[in-house]
Amino acid sequence: MTIESTPMTVPSIPMTILIEPDPSVPIACVLPLDEWGAWRKDYQALYGGHLQLIAREPGRLRLVVDRGDRVDLEAVAIAQLRRDKEECRPFLGFAFASERAAITIEISAAAGAEASLDEVELMMREYLPAATVQ
Predict the structure, then answer these.
(1) Closest CA to 11 of 128, 102, 91
(2) For 18-36, how does the pLDDT look when each residue is reduced to its tens digit (9 = 90+)?
(3) What single-letter DSSP state applies at residue 42?
(4) What is the DSSP string of 19-40?
(5) Distance (Å, rounded) from C-alpha 56 to C-alpha 28?
(6) Separation between Cα atoms, residue 65 and residue 115, nearest integer Å
(7) Start-to-end C-alpha separation, the chain
C-alpha cells in the first residue's frame, strides 16, 4: 500500500541523530504478535492527544508532539524510539529535536525500506486521527 502525502512543509530545525538506519538487516518487523497490544498502549501514552503533525518527505517521516505538562517527554520518547529500533524495526533510524512547546521525531528508512514509513504513517493516522497530516 502506498500512501500519498504532500511534500514536507515543516520548518527545518536542527535534529540530533539518535540512531542511523541499518541497511544490513532484513526489512521486517521482528516484534512478536502477542506483544503488539502492549506496543499500541505505549504509542497511545506517548502520542495520544499530543500528536500535532505528521509530515512526509522521501525516505523520512516527521512527527511533532505537543509537550503539554510532560516534563519527562524527551526521556519517554527516546526510550520508545530505542525500543522500536531494537524490538521491531531495526532498519529504521531516528532523529530528535526538543523545543519548549513540542518535540519533533524524525524517522528515516534505510534504502529499500522506504515503504515501511507508509506503515508507520498509516498507524499514526489511524490511531491518532486528530493529528494534522501534510
Answers:
(1) 102
(2) 888 888 888 887 778 888 7
(3) H
(4) E---TTS-SS----GGGHHHHH
(5) 21
(6) 23
(7) 18
